[in-house]
Design brief:
alpha/beta; TIM Barrel; eight-stranded parallel β-barrel; binds phosphoenolpyruvate; binds manganese (II) ion
Length: 262
């Protein structure tokens, strides 16, 4: 008998904030970060185990060991786990350890992966986050959702994470208009990843406020207990004090929609 989980990432009346490191580095690192995420009152811990890095010379993630640490630490803190799946061949493996399967920007059009994720998420009652491809239109993104949902019912949450434009000051350009457009074109929930969009920690808080103001259902942000020492994306990671500050500011905007941050 398949063991089914009952995860609901997006709940009516709430703004869901997912926080955690770009990559799982060690048990100590994950413990320190999970502690900050729990103290901030959040319920979902993100962490990459299979990392799709632009350079093959960058840290590639702890893979299975990273998944084991995610499961162990999240259970200790009573948090749910979000982690990326990068390959159709490892979907079942990742699904053993996580509550939410994340499909990254580089794989939005990896249709074999989307179909496999759809099948496994349906079977195991997992949620799916589908990030927007950085060079994909909103129509292409919505069609990608159907590759997942054609395999059966599961919660699919879109994630706007920035697109490529001619601007290079920020890592990508956060297309916040995608949020109301998605709301107009579909019934799908949508969250925003300001961290990968702007690529600089000081810009993450203002863009988080803006994302909630335009109607996003939640955020996924990178946090680290010691960003200067992070093996991956430290420059865009909030420390635990900045995370709390961000949540306080975001709550003000959530109130406009009669929502609470969780
Ligand atoms: C991530 O969230 O760890 C990640 C790699 O993001 P993206 O796919 O948006 O680049
Ligand atoms: Mn990252």
């Amino acid at each position: 008998m398949e063991q089914k989980k009952d995860i609901q990432l997006i709940k009516k009346g709430f703004i869901t904030v997912i926080a955690g490191p770009c990559a799982v580095e060690s048990e100590d690192q994950l413990n320190a970060i999970a502690n900050g995420v729990k103290e901030a009152g959040l319920n979902f811990l993100r962490g990459g185990a299979y990392k799709p890095r632009t350079s093959p010379y960058s840290f590639q993630g702890l893979e299975k060991k990273g998944l084991e640490l995610l499961k162990k630490v999240s259970q200790e803190y009573g948090l749910k786990v979000v982690s990326e799946v990068t390959d159709a061949a490892t979907v079942e493996e990742v699904a053993e350890y996580v509550d939410v399967l994340q499909i990254g920007t580089r794989n939005m059009s990896n249709f074999a992966l989307l179909k496999k994720v759809g099948r496994v998420a349906n079977l195991k009652n997992l949620s799916v986050i589908l990030k927007r491809g950085w060079a994909s239109t909103i129509k292409e993104w919505l069609l990608a959702v159907e590759y997942i949902t054609q395999q059966g019912d599961c919660e699919v949450v879109l994630c706007e994470r920035g697109i490529r434009t001619f601007e290079t000051y920020t890592r990508f350009t956060l297309d916040l208009s995608a949020v109301p457009v998605i709301k107009k074109m579909s019934n799908l929930p949508i969250i925003v990843d300001p961290s990968h969009a702007v690529g600089q920690s000081d810009l993450v808080i203002p863009m988080s406020r803006a994302a909630i103001a335009v109607g996003a259902d939640g955020l996924i942000v990178e946090t680290h207990h010691n960003p200067e020492k992070a093996l991956c994306d430290g420059q865009q990671s909030l420390n635990s004090r900045q995370l709390k500050d961000m949540l306080g500011q975001v709550s003000v905007f959530a109130k406009f929609f009669n929502k609470m941050v969780r």
